[in-house]
Amino acid sequence: MRYRAVVAYDGTAYQGWQAQPSGATVQQTIEDALSTVLREPVRVVAAGRTDAGVHARGQVIAFDAGVVLSAEPVDGDPAGRSALARTLRSVNAVLPEDVVLRTLEIAAPGFDPRRDAVRRGYRYRIWNAEVRSPFERTRAWHVREPLDDAAMRAAAAQLVGEHDFASFQGADDVPRPSVREVTRSELCRDGEVVEYAIEANSFARHMVRNVVGLLVEVGRGRLPSMTAGALLEARDRRIAPPPAPPQGLCLEWVRYP
Question: Which residues are catalytic?
Fold first, then answer.
């Protein structure tokens, strides 16, 4: 049977989402917990592969298991929980404190959390103050210089629409599709915290961190806000600013039809 779950995690201690031979990963951590509780080997697939240090509130995963977990209340359960709810509780008891399954439900056969997704939302957090915050060190990029919010907002607005984001994708020699449709690209400030929210049908590799890297350079006054549009036209990663660090980035949600 196919199952789906919404997962939240603090990515600080992990080498990213994808399982790999060395270093702890979120994928392997979840697979180990599911395998322990369900008593069979479990492999999960996700809506997206987050990098080392990146967080998620709404990552979506899917997996197959031989056991059939009903959504109906289990006879004799004092709280009236279903087999699905009891399994969710058991998996979370096995998982470390920095990873949690928020939901667990039966999925349609063949459900693919990556290919079936129609929209995703990310948020990037910046701690904009001279003095660093010990509470924000794993949640935000500490930028000491004052940032021009208006200039950053003007630059962010240029990214809305369907564009070729080749200038904002990961720099390597592997050709990849880079046209994306961005439906939201907004920046707001609450005191010393600057947050950037972006929504799109999908994202190129490292796209959000590369966008934020540009926005901060604009906010520092080192580049004009119109640089965002110029970089879209150029389609050349080599002329764009370096990416923002990973700890400020969070996958907020994934939407399906």
Answer: 51
